[in-house]
Structure formats: structure tokens, C-alpha cells
Amino acid sequence: MGLIMDTSALVTLERARSSWEQFQAVVTDEPVAMPVIVYAELLASVRLADSPARAAVRQATIDVFASRMPIVDFGLKTAKHWASLFAHLYQMGSMIPANDLAIAATAFERGFGVLVGPEGEAHFRRVPDLRVKVLRPFAS
Q1: Considering the entire predicted model, what is its pTM?
Q2: Which CATH number is correct for 3-134, 3.40.50.1010, 3.40.720.10, 1.10.3720.10, 3.40.50.300?
Q3: CA angle 111-60-71, nearest 5°?
């Protein structure tokens, strides 16, 4: 197994000022990968930061985590999972945000679950058969 990291998990880590080592202690049993859409969302958060200092902290956090886990592209196989998930959720009247649908599809394509922060959990739970692991805040 393994885990695909959602942006909400990185936000939880940034807010706790967590190190890579602290993160590894929490998810030691599974490999973790970052979808390219999460990387894009994180880069947007740097550009939207309310101060240069906050932008620098965010960029440093992104750089550490992106250098230590693979960044997974959205390819043709993932697109097929995305289409199936989209159709199912649409028919059920239970759509989730588009980027999170891409994250879920990436997880399915790799046979992984999704690692989320405590505030990113609810809509991922609407995706049938998706394993969701919640990263709880911890002290730095």
C-alpha cells in the first residue's frame, strides 16, 4: 500500500511547523507520494501568502517535502480513474472538488489511500472504496 498526500495534510504539517523526520515517524509504514495537482496548489499558496515571511516558510516546507517524496503526474491511466469516479459521484449527486477528484483518481491508479489533514477528510470519505488516513496535528 501507500498514501497520496492531499494539500490539507501539508497544511497541517506547516501549521505545526513539523519536520520531515516528524512526518516520517507518523507514516513510517507506508510510502507517500505527492500528486502534481497538490504541488500546484502548494505553489499557489506561496503566491497568495499574506507576507513575504509567510511565503518563504511555505516555500521552504514545500521544497523539503517535494524533494523527499515522488511527485506523481496525472497521466492517461489516472484520467480513466478520474472519469469513472466523476461519473459515479455525479450519478450519486455527491460530487467533490475537481482537484480532490484528481487526487482520489491518482490514489486509485497507484492502489494507494489518501493522507489528509483533519479539515480535508469529509469529502474524500464520499469516494467509494477510497482509504482515507487522517494526519492529526502534533507538536513540533
Answers
A1: 0.88
A2: 3.40.50.1010
A3: 20
